[in-house]
Design brief:
37% helix, alpha/beta, TIM Barrel, binds flavin mononucleotide, 8-stranded parallel beta barrel
């Protein structure tokens, strides 16, 4: 088999993953549980990706009965397509307008934590294989860990251990409702990249505490759209020093590199984002030795990130059928042959 490491199965805490390729959370503005959204995700599952992490979803949405009922269509569709499915949980009004974490009253912090746990419970009942709180990319949860943004002087701010407390409480709460096949992931940016920001050493301490709370997989993501950098060295250090399964991201659409990262212990999983927009069948094409037929992402960010910034549904300059999958029923069989 070519790329035998990339396509080798693995089990984490009893959950089977058919390969190491993960579709990372990518906001779409398709509505998460709409027909448009479900068809978009199911097409990617049929394309051979082992795991889909559904885009950042604000926890307050999980209180709606209609939303709860429709989640099952999403999980069923993705499972039938052959992939595991997780959902990323975010905080209401994330990313905009940004709140200053220093000013959030303790009562509100407790209710934010309760919302994560409630969203976890709903996700478990809806058939997800697990959830991923979004602690990366400078958003609110990440700001709690930042010595620059978090200037609190209570149990949620101060030294590095107090700054990790918010995330630890969320993970602890989620673990209390999880069964042993429902995994808890956490997305984290390993270094703050600013003067006075947190370091890789802080991240290692954080990772060890997350692990003590029962975290199953750490998803290491340097930034929202890192272009074509390879962040393997950071992921490897976290994996080695925290000793936990790790997802890495960045340039992983290059199969030789992705396979090498798994083989040489940089990460247990590789996330491929934008190239799964430009070509949903990328994993199958790689596995079938047809990488030359992949419609590669041009890293232009025009219709994905650019549209997101303009608050309109995303698409892709290479593959304008992104977001129109629900109109295509039946046409995918050609790709699957
Ligand atoms: C349109 C778009 C939306 C994204 N939305 C999210 C998100 O909701 N949560 C998140 O953690 N990362 C988000 N990201 C970052 C991706 O998960 C991924 O880390 C990034 O695209 C780098 O991977 P790539 O180079 O393979 O595309 C988004 C990226 C794009 C392009």
């Amino acid at each position: 088999m070519i790329y035998e490491y990339l396509f080798s199965p693995i089990s984490v805490k009893g959950l089977y993953f058919k390969n190491r390729i993960v579709m990372p959370p990518m906001a779409t503005n398709f509505g998460i549980v709409t027909q448009q959204s479900i068809a978009y995700y199911v097409k990617r599952a049929l394309g051979g990706v082992g795991t889909i992490i559904v885009e950042g979803t604000p926890t307050h949405l999980f209180h709606s009965k209609k939303f709860q009922d429709r989640l099952k269509f999403l999980t069923d569709g993705i499972h039938k397509g052959g992939a595991n499915v997780f959902i990323q949980l975010t905080i209401k009004s994330n990313p905009q307008p940004r709140r200053d974490v220093t000013d959030i009253p303790i009562d509100e912090i407790k209710s934010l934590i309760d919302d994560f746990v409630y969203a976890g419970k709903v996700s478990l009942e809806a058939g997800f294989d697990g959830v991923e709180p979004h602690g990366a990319h400078g958003f609110i949860m990440n700001q709690f860990f930042s010595p620059i943004f978090n200037r609190r002087n209570d149990e949620y701010g101060g030294d590095v251990y107090k700054r990790m407390r918010f995330a630890l409480d969320v993970i602890k709460g989620l673990k209390s409702i999880a069964n042993n096949r429902f995994l808890i992931l956490y997305r984290h940016t390993p270094v703050e990249w600013r003067d006075g920001g947190y370091s890789l050493g802080d991240t290692i301490l954080f990772g060890r505490e997350l692990k003590k709370e029962g975290l199953d997989i750490l998803d290491i993501s340097p930034s929202t759209a890192p272009g074509s950098y390879d962040y393997g060295a950071l992921a490897k250090e976290v994996k080695r020093q925290v000793d936990i399964p790790v997802i890495m991201v960045g340039k992983m659409y290059v199969p030789d590199l992705a396979d090498d990262r798994i083989r040489n212990g940089y990460a247990d999983f590789v996330a491929i984002g934008r190239t799964l927009l430009s070509d949903p069948f990328l994993p199958k094409k790689i596995q079938d030795g047809k990488f030359n037929l992949v419609d590669s992402c041009r890293q232009c960010n025009i219709m994905c990130h650019g549209y997101l910034r303009r608050k309109i549904p995303i698409s892709c300059i290479v593959n304008p059928s992104v977001g129109k999958e629900f109109l295509e029923r039946g046409r995918w069989s050609r790709e699957l042959r």
